[in-house]
Amino acid sequence: MSGQIKESNEPSPPSRGTGGILAIESSCDETSAAICRDGNILSNIIAGQKVHEQYGGVVPELASRAHIQNIIPVVDAAVKKAGCNLGDIDAVAFTQSPGLIGSLLVGTQFAKSLALSLNKPLIAVHHMQAHVLANLIDDPRPSFPFLCLTVSGGHTQIVLCESPTKMRVIGETIDDAAGEAFDKSAKLLGLPYPGGPLIDKYAKEGNPKRFQFPEPQIPGLDFSFSGLKTSILYFLQNAGKTHVYKEEFLATEKEKEVFIKENLADLCASIQQRIVSILLNKLKKASIETGIKDICIAGGVSANSGLRKAFEEAGTKYNWNTFIPDFQYCTDNAGMIAITAYFKYLAGEFSDLSTTASARAEW
Ligand code: KG4
Ligand code: ZN
């Protein structure tokens, strides 16, 4: 693999190799490091943080502290697995934005210090752009221009990608992200954080048509998930005594608990089916409006088996070429930071030591 994009309309990147790029990701609650050589990911080490489970969500201060503990062993493991040493590194890349500021700062300061001590260039990477470019890590790869539905815990976007360094958001959520919709629904069902993978697991046994949660009518290519969350809340408070999702409280706490327990699989399947239909209906609209048929999904929620299946089915139905990154490159990982840095390296887009982390990011 050369790292070039098959059937691309883009000019070919220079033929010289990039040597090695060490990439670091620390935007939320995963500490990750990867090594990329000539567009090939040689290692992608990811350390999760179990400490947040008991709190029902990521605690920013605890995340920063865990990154500080994890970062050296994770970088060490990535270098060893790639079979190289720090002397082979030609550039140091890191997630600069968006994310939790304390978490980002750990990766940013580490990368800056390492680049300074190795006297190598720094490459700052936009986390959401990296989720999109995760689709360029392995074959088969999309041709430019392509669309990417990026669905994570903090973002839900449709991105039109014209080249590895040129992309724009053409639709996004106006309230909750798709991952939040999964996690908040799971919380209403009494499931621990992060609930997305658990809804996925229980949905496999359930009937997705059993409960019909409403689909919001949002103009254009934007999304909304907060109404779905409210309808689930009211429905559970009524313990299924009415199929009208309104603010009535027809059930006791005990009845609600029993209702959830007896119907967990069908509830998960129905919630998942609705989140997936909201996402795919907008993606279909985006494909019609842009005329683009090379379509990718990316981000943590692209690990969802219901979304992956429905996306492939939509591909067959609408004649799309569909692309989904390997599982390890769906949730937060440094492999996607490394591939993005590879293209920035080829384009000569480097940062200097005055670069700082930023919780929010412009595209
Ligand atoms: O991209 P990501 O790892 O981190 C962010 O940048 O946010 O995404 C995390 C999100 C969480 O909301 C998690 O519940 C969701 O991705 N997620 C899933 C699945 N795996 C992860 N949601 C539904 N089904 C899954 N299998
Ligand atoms: Zn992410």
Could you explain how this protein is built, in words?
This protein is of the alpha/beta class and 363 residues long. Helices cover 40% and strands 18% of the residues. The chain is built from 9 helices and 10 strands. It has helices spanning 60-81, 101-118, 127-133, 178-188, 196-203, 226-237, 253-290, 305-318, 334-347, and strands spanning 20-25, 31-37, 40-47, 89-97, 122-126, 146-151, 156-163, 166-172, 294-298, 321-323. The strands form 2 sheets. A 5-stranded mixed sheet has the order 3-2-1-4-5, with helices on both faces. A 5-stranded mixed sheet has the order 8-7-6-9-10, with helices on both faces. Strand 6 and strand 7 form a beta hairpin. The longest helix has 38 residues, at 253-290. The protein is globular. Residues 1-16 have low confidence and may be disordered. The structure holds 5'-O-[(R)-(carboxyoxy)(hydroxy)phosphoryl]adenosine and zinc ion (ZN). 5'-O-[(R)-(carboxyoxy)(hydroxy)phosphoryl]adenosine binds next to helix 4 and helix 5.
